[in-house]
């Protein structure tokens, strides 16, 4: 009986020692930020509004359809940012860039920050 108990104890110990814990690390593409400083003369008047087209090749079809796009404008002294749409500013995203519209032509340089958010489509 002692031999059988010792044999079962050895098999159990061997089975528990051979278990291994696997650490799974989710590796995702980091978010990307693109910053533009746009001068007042770059705004174009069309249909009573001023428009600014920004070329962003990083904004591809995967980012457009499955991930996220956030657009911000900075205050004149660049101490804070406002997410668009805000006030008289609005934007429209498309593959390859964004278009920003404003009811008036800005008189100072406008800093625009575009953040491309990486995400996984789970639908």
Would you write up a description of this structure?
The protein is α+β, with helices and mostly antiparallel strands. The chain has a domain at 32-117. The chain has helices at 2-17, 61-66, and strands spanning 32-38, 44-46, 49-55, 68-74, 81-83, 89-94, 97-102, 110-117. The mean pLDDT is 84.
Keywords:
8 strands, four-stranded antiparallel β-sheet, alpha+beta, 123 residues, 38% strand, rod-shaped, 18% helix
The radius of gyration is: 27 Å
Secondary structure category: alpha+beta
Strand and helix order: HEEEHEEEEE
How large is the share of residues in beta strands? 35-45%
Number of helices: 2
| Spatial arrangement of strands, main beta sheet | 1-8-4-5
Mean pLDDT rating:
84
Q: Tell me how many strands there are.
A: 8
Helical amount among residues, as a percent range?
Answer: 10-25%
Please outline what is shown here.
This protein is α+β, with helices and mostly antiparallel strands and 123 residues long. Helices cover 18% and strands 38% of the residues.
């Amino acid at each position: 009986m002692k031999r059988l108990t010792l044999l079962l104890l050895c098999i159990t110990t061997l089975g528990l020692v051979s278990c291994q814990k696997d650490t799974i690390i989710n590796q995702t593409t980091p978010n990307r930020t693109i910053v533009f400083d746009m001068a007042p003369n770059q705004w174009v008047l069309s249909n009573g509004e001023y428009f600014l087209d920004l070329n962003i090749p990083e904004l591809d079809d995967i980012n457009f359809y499955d991930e996220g796009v956030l657009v911000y404008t900075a205050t004149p002294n660049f101490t804070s940012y406002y997410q668009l749409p805000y006030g008289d500013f609005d934007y429209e995203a498309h593959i390859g860039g964004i278009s920003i519209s404003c009811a008036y032509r800005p008189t100072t340089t406008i800093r625009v920050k575009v953040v491309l958010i990486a995400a996984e489509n789970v639908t």
